[in-house]
Specification:
Length: 422
């Protein structure tokens, strides 16, 4: 899944780099932001310059690096103007030493002065040795930052610079990018809203070796789940296939056949539709607001219409089957008709190859399956599956909206904007 070059167009990002071996990964992070259309400036601590030179960041960002030597009060190249310019301050990597100083309001270098002068929410991506990260002091410091206008990108377990394997490695640049983009792109309509997305073609077993399926790649569902995450939604993606680049914060459930999908889907819908709790409960105002928002279901999965009548255990031998083998199929359960859709906005996806009758077939789903909207996708042939772009027609009882062909993440973001405006 490609990141659109206009995703963060017009956004200003200030990246702080501290003294950690992970600083070399920040070069990739800068590249991701610039590729997505953001304008990027970098502020470095003196310790960070021991690992990566300012010139490397200047070459990628096309801006002078802000540090103790370059700060100027005769221009806007100083920590006060840099913070005022930025829509978001991202500190990656953020060393244990910097975490300790941030949590105690210490500002003895330029990067820390930027953080202290910034009243907006800030994003940090810690990087530290496992024992340093697990220290009760570091844990307490991170907890303090969590309630002091900081969002923290979780570390990962891998081999560290000290040649031990454990938790403490900085998150991958793409994951930090997603966290930052979510802070910059969140939409009040979608923020904290519970959303379920299904995707991929179901795999219906003939025996333990063979199955019937379809060409659905699951790419549209992965793009839609990513778009919803970026808009601030609480996303649950139930699919047979996933893109490897979706945000790790998206809750994913892998399923194979339609029966398994229906089981998880039924549970997920039930949880998403839990009734509004009173303010007398233990929930805070934000959690209550989250539950009050009507959930959404995007049914983008390609569920098999027919399944084998008698799936077999083991592997059927061709010597026993003979020269001809007739596979008996039965009509599958209709997942959309089976689900209790009361209290959840349901958007179905309909793929058609008969362009002449595609619209009327798609519109008929509004009544026949009791959905609120249908996304019609007209395919040319089997090669249309798995493409990186798509075009849709959103059909609802109110109006039809044509969404022109574009990459699937951009298309998903446009779809969400249209739905939130209806």
């Amino acid at each position: 899944m490609t990141t659109p070059d206009h995703l963060l167009h017009g956004k200003h990002i200030l990246i702080g780099v501290t003294g950690s071996i992970a600083a070399y990964k920040t070069l990739d992070l800068v590249r991701l932001f610039v590729k997505a259309g953001a304008e990027v400036k970098v502020v470095m601590s003196d310790a960070a310059k021991k690992f990566v030179t300012p010139l490397s960041f200047e070459a990628l960002s096309r801006h002078d690096v802000l540090d103790n030597l370059s700060e100027s009060w005769s221009s806007d190249h100083n920590h006060i103007h840099a913070v005022a310019w930025a829509d978001l301050l991202v500190i990656a990597p953020c060393s244990a030493n910097t975490i300790a100083k941030l949590s105690n309001g210490i500002a003895d270098n330029l990067l820390l002065q930027c953080a202290l002068a910034d009243p907006k929410i800030k994003l940090i991506a810690p990087s530290a040795n496992t024992q340093m990260l697990e220290s009760p002091f570091t844990k307490a410091n991170l907890k303090m930052l969590g309630i002091a206008n900081y969002e923290i990108v979780p570390t990962q377990v891998k081999e560290l610079a000290c040649q031990t394997t454990g938790d403490g490695a900085m998150a991958e640049p793409l994951e930090i990018f997603y966290h930052a983009a979510r802070l910059l792109l969140k939409d009040p309509y979608w923020e904290h809203r519970r959303v379920i997305v299904t995707g991929g073609g179901t795999v219906e077993k003939i025996d333990d070796v063979r199955y019937i399926s379809n060409f659905s790649s699951g790419k549209m569902a992965s793009a839609l789940a990513t778009a919803l995450y970026l808009k601030g939604a609480d996303v649950n993606l139930i699919a047979t296939r996933f893109e490897t680049t979706i945000p790790q914060a998206v809750h994913t459930i892998h399923v194979d056949d339609s029966a398994e999908m229906l089981e998880y889907l039924t549970d997920s819908v039930r949880i998403a539709k839990k009734g509004v709790l009173s303010k007398a409960s233990l929930l805070n105002d934000e959690q209550i607001h989250r539950i009050q928002k009507e959930p959404y279901l995007f049914m983008a999965a390609a569920v098999s219409d027919y399944i084998p009548s008698f799936p077999q255990q083991g592997k059927m031998k061709k010597t026993l089957l003979g020269e001809r083998y007739a596979l008996e199929l039965k009509q599958n359960t209709d997942l959309l008709r089976t689900l209790d859709k009361e209290g959840i906005v349901t958007v179905a996806f309909k793929a058609e190859m008969d362009a002449e009758h595609a619209y009327e077939h798609a519109k008929a789903l509004l009544d026949s399956k009791g959905v609120d909207a249908v996304c019609l996708n007209i395919l040319q042939n089997s090669k249309s599956f798995g493409s990186s772009d798509n075009a849709l027609t959103l059909i609802s009882k109110n109006a039809d909206v044509i969404l022109e062909n574009k990459d699937k993440l951009s298309l998903s973001l446009e779809l969400l904007e249209v739905l939130s405006a209806q």
